[in-house]
Design brief:
Ribulose 1,5 Bisphosphate Carboxylase/Oxygenase, 3 domains
Length: 264
């Protein structure tokens, strides 16, 4: 949901409207907030504002400012750290393993690989970064060093459903622990929409640790967009915790090489 600010320039009052979809503001030309009549048509200024929490935005800005104190020769990622409390991570049901689509993207697209053959391979090629054909699976299983490097390089894997048993048996030992087992899809599916969402997706995993780390953008992105991404991830995590926000002890944001800044 977006907030819509509008101000009548003939009056100092500021009003806040909340609406999911607003196509048109129907305001009489001679209307002013105090109930009087304007001699000339009233000018209306429209401002769409971010829904990010102000504390989040302030912490992001400080983290970005701190990162600028030392020049880097690469673009730093912006990382979120969520520390859980009163959660038994030895119980597998309490562990977090989520894929979150960031509303403003990652700053750079996630890299996608697909296991496919025939028509699916042909149609998916423009939408992915790597195509792995069925005959290559056995070769990769024999060269585990090569496939480990591949598994680390690509963020998400998709697979033609009939190939899943072979992939699980041959490459599952490498993909499984990384949380990168392929998403099975029918041979006739159009993968363009799946790939489009995955480009903006981050994987959020706790394993057995009470600290969760997730990439939420890059330092080149606007502060409010990063803050929106952070709030989206936090809300997803809260929804998975038994006591919601009460199970979160602290939240920090940082750049790759910068110090952590506490959000709350």
């Amino acid at each position: 949901m977006n907030h819509l600010f509008f101000r009548f320039l003939s009056d100092r009052n500021m009003f806040l409207l909340t609406n999911t979809f607003i196509n048109k503001l129907l305001i009489p030309e001679n209307y002013i907030p105090d109930g009087g009549v304007a001699s000339t048509p009233t000018t209306v200024q429209i401002h769409w504002c971010s829904m990010a929490d102000s504390k989040t935005a302030e912490a992001v800005q400080k983290a970005l400012d701190d990162s600028k104190k030392k020049e880097r020769k690469f673009t730093q990622s912006v990382d979120l750290v969520i520390n859980l409390k009163n959660v038994d991570m030895n119980d597998a049901k309490n562990r977090i393993e989520e894929e979150v689509v960031l509303p403003n993207g990652r700053g750079s697209d996630a890299k996608i690989a697909i296991f496919a053959s025939g028509e699916l391979a042909l149609k998916s090629k423009p939408h992915v970064d790597l195509l792995i054909k069925p005959e290559e699976i056995e070769e990769l299983a024999k060269d585990k060093k090569k496939f480990k490097k591949m598994a680390d390089e690509y963020d998400f894997f998709i697979a033609e459903a009939p190939l899943m048993p072979t992939i699980g048996k041959s490459l599952g030992i490498i993909l499984g622990p990384r949380g990168k087992m392929p998403k099975p899809v029918p041979p006739t599916i159009d993968v363009s929409s799946i790939a489009k969402n995955l480009r903006k997706t981050v994987r959020v995993r706790s394993k057995a640790s009470t600290s969760i780390h997730a990439m939420v953008g890059q330092e080149k992105m606007p502060t409010d967009q990063i803050a929106d991404n952070i709030d989206t991830v936090i809300k997803r995590i809260e929804a998975k915790l038994e006591r919601g926000r009460m199970n979160i002890g602290s939240v920090y944001v940082k750049t790759s090489m910068g110090p952590s800044v506490r959000i709350w």
